[in-house]
Design a protein that fits this description.
about 65% helix
Length: about 100
């Protein structure tokens, strides 16, 4: 029987596994290259853990605007014909769903 996500630690573990798969995916890795090169992955994981904790546990830790944060990234890659939309989001959701089934 699977256990429910019951803590921030659970969320973080899921996200760490998810990002390992995401960064190994050749289509998705370029979108996160700057975060990895600048050694900001741990910081990024804390932010998205805040985001998911807010959604799952009705807290108010996440202070960013998800659309404002992600739109410039997609606009940078769009001229290179590597937009994260819509294929990237399908990959993103597939990998996230796989981690939730673990």
């Amino acid at each position: 029987m699977k256990l429910d996500i019951s803590s921030r630690k659970d969320i973080k573990c899921i996200l760490i596994l998810f990002y390992e798969k995401l960064l190994a995916d050749e289509k998705m890795a370029p979108f996160f290259e700057e975060i990895v090169v600048n050694k900001q992955l741990d910081h990024h994981l804390e932010i998205i853990t805040d985001f998911w904790q807010d959604i799952l546990f009705d807290t108010t830790l996440y202070k960013n605007n998800t659309m404002k944060t992600h739109t410039p990234i997609d606009m940078f890659f769009y001229p290179l014909r590597r937009s994260i939309l819509p294929v990237g989001y399908r990959i993103y959701l597939r990998l996230l769903t796989l981690n939730l089934k673990v």
